[in-house]
Structure formats: C-alpha cells, structure tokens
Amino acid sequence: MSNFFPKGVDRRNFLKVTAVAAGGLVAMPYISSRARAATLKTVNFSEAVHNLGYINLYVGMHDGIFEKHGLDMKVSAAGGDTQTFAAVLGGSADFAIGDATMAQISRENGGPGVVVGTVVQRAHYFGVSKTMEPFTDPKDLKGKKVVTSPEPNTNYSVTKRMVEQAGLKLGTDVTIVPVNPGTEIGAMLAGQADMAVAYQPSVAAAEAQGSKVVFDFSNYIGPFCNTGIMVLPSTIEKDPEMVQALVTAFEEASRKTYADPAFAKKVARLEFPDLPGEVVDKAIDAELKYLIPAQSVVTKPDQWKNLMDMQLYLGNIKGTVSFDEIIDNSFADKAVKQLG
User: Fold this and answer.
1) What SUPFAM superfamilies does its record include (predicted)?
2) Closest Cα to residue 145, out of 123, 170, 125?
3) Among residues 14, 29, 129, 149, which one has the fewest Cβ atoms lying within 10 Å of its Cβ?
4) Residue 179 pLDDT more than 60?
C-alpha cells in the first residue's frame, strides 16, 4: 500500500512525521488578540505555511468572525502540506488546511480523513523570475531550472505536471530544484534557478526587488482545490457543532475578503508586518484579481476533479476514493443557507 504515497513519503516516513507533529505544531503560533470569553471553544488549527493564499483565515480571525461563532482559534504553521495533515492525524490539531491530497492518500491507505471545505480555489502560484520574460507556453521552460517546494507539495506537483504535459522531460529539459517551503523566491534571487514557483506575499516582495511574474498558474489550471479544510471523522462525530461553527466562520470570512478588500489589506499588513505595506497591498490585489481565495467554502466537483486528475497523473494517488466519500459538503451547504 505504501507504493501509493508520493515518492519520498512512504508510510513509515508519513507516520514518523505524524509522531513528531503529535508533540506540537511548529513555527509561527499566534492567537487572536481580542479578549476571550470563557465560553469559547478552543480549536487547535494547523496551516501548512503562513501565506496570503489563506487570507480568508486571517480576515476571519482579525474581524472576530471565529469568536462570533464561539471559537478560540489557536493557529500554527506546520511547514508544509504533509506536516499539516500529520498534525491532525497525530492529534495536535483539530483541523488542518493544506493540500487536501493528503487526506485522499490517507483514505486510500486505510487511514482517516475528510475534507469539509475549500480555502483556496485556484492554484495560488506564480512563476517569478529576474531573467526570464513572461510566457504562456510551458515549452519555453526548456533548458531552465525551476525552484519549488519538495514533492509532494502542491507547487512541485503543478510544475511537474505542466512540464511533462508540454512534452518536456524532467531532469533533462527542465530541472526542478526543491527547497524548503517559503524559501523559493530567495533561492531564485540567489541564482539557484531561473524561475521560482511561489505564492503571495513573497511574489509581490520579489517584484519590489526587480523580479517579475512570468507565468500565472491560476488561469493555466483553472478551478482547483488548492487548499482544503481537513479533519478526522472522529472529530466530526465527537463535536459536529464545532465543525459547523468553523465551516460557517470560513464561509463568512470568505465573503468578507471579497466584499471588503481594504480590510483584507489591513489584515494582511498585520500578518506580514516585516513587508512594506504597498507590497502587501499589491499581493492582495493579485489574490483577488485571480480569484485565488475561495469565494465560498463549498468544495465544487470541478475543483476537486482538477486536483485529483493532477495527482493521478503524477501517480500520487490511486483514485479509489470518490468525491462523495471524502468530501463532506453538508457543513458548507448549511453555512451558505444560514448566511443567505
């Protein structure tokens, strides 16, 4: 069964990461600064990497939306897609957001995992370079080095599939240089690659340093469940009210992000205080222009199909777990109905 884990992530390594994550989430813990009422339900929440693709989460926290729904969110960044789902499997997180393929892999190998919503509805990656010109044909990557996070992170997966579908041979025509998630831009600027596949706000920061966006993955791929809300069936069974509250809060936050871009920019500046404000504002403008944050928490079949088709192509999954088996839209549908 372990053959169906992505290369480098066999069952033993996957469980090892789970055990580590069970001891506690890593990196960038933060909680909402508002005063907590004693009645709030504590939610341990893991995000794969702190980035502006998850702006709906941050808007919900800073606007008090999660608190309004009775939740005290304790959020930590895990350092990657595998690590964030491992935190849920290990019990140190109630929910995780990241590449929902991790839940699919778990289910196909006899483990647990349910996706109850979408947080990022498009591939939130941009090709960024200081030497290349903008292109639309992936064949233009021939002879280039491209830096991404390691397999099985999503920016690696979308890049590999794009290269191979263009008829190029990975390792011969195009070389992928894997680096730690979040350091792609730095590696490109240091000359390790011609192009970085990265996300906001790193992209806008790179543009401020003279680099430019040369490729847009969001429109190239189309609707895509880039980031899902993952949870264990046992959590749903034990506390469906908490799950409903969280999903409803995400639905409300998603609407707030698009309805009030100025507030989203204010939140983004607070979440990334080390970046110039104008850089953060530009990043949010790009996120909303390309419809990257989910407009609704409901996971749509076409979004899921595009994700699964990619992972099937790459050999990361078997495709034996159907949409209705792994996607539970009941909480999202109820949230939409409740909010009108």
Assistant:
1) Periplasmic binding protein-like II
2) 170
3) 29
4) yes
Answer whether residue 296 shows pLDDT above 60. yes
| Domain coordinates in residue numbering, the chain | 2-123+223-339, 126-220
What is the per-residue pLDDT for 17?
Answer: 42
CATH code of the domain made up of 2-123+223-339: 3.40.190.10
What's this model's pTM, rounded to 2 decimal places? Answer: 0.85
- Kindly state the tokens that stand for 236: 């749903």
SS3 for 125?
A: coil
In this predicted structure, what is the pLDDT of residue 152? 83
Distance CA 235, CA 39 (A): 19
Angle at 29 between CA 279 and CA 232, to 5 degrees: 110
Task: Please state, in angstroms and rounded to a whole number, the distance separating the CA atoms of residues 139 and 21.
Answer: 40
Residues 6+ apart with CB under 8 A from 31: 72, 73, 74, 75
pLDDT beyond 80 at 131: yes
Phi, psi for 60 (deg, rounded to 5):
-60, -35
Topology classification of domain 126-220: D-Maltodextrin-Binding Protein; domain 2 (3.40.190)
User: Is the distance from CB of 133 to CB of 211 less than 8 angstroms?
Assistant: no
pLDDT confidence of residue 37: 52
Whether 261 contacts 284, CB under 8 Å: yes
Question: CA–CA separation, 17 vs 316, rounded Å?
Answer: 18
What Rg, from alpha-carbon coordinates, does the chain have?
19
Nearest to 274 by CA among 210, 211, 202: 202
Q: Is the dihedral of CA 122, 319, 136, 155 positive or negative?
A: positive
pLDDT at 113: 99
